[in-house]
Amino acid sequence: MNFVSHLECANCGVRYEAGKIHNLCAACNRPLWVKYDLAALKKNFKKKDLMGRPPTIWRYLEMLPISNPEKIVSLTETITPILDCKRLASHFGMESLLVKDESRLPTGSFKSRGMAMALSMANEFGIKKVACPTAGNAGGAMAAYAARAGMEAYVFMPEDTPMINKKECYLAGAKTFAVNGLINDCGRIVGEGKKIKGWFDVSTLKEPYRIEGKKTMGLELAEQFDWELPDVILYPTGGGTGLIGMWKAFAELEAMGWLKSPKKPKMISCQSEGCAPISTAFDKGERFAKLFEGASTVASGIRVPVAVGDFMILDAVRESGGVAIATPEKDIPKFMRMASSSEGIALCPETAVCLGALDVLLQRGTIKKTDRVLIFNTGAAQKYPEAVQEKLQRIDITKPIDWDKI
Question: Which string of b and e fits 14-30 if b means at least 16 CB within 10 Å?
Answer without folding.
Answer: eebebeeebbbbeeeeb
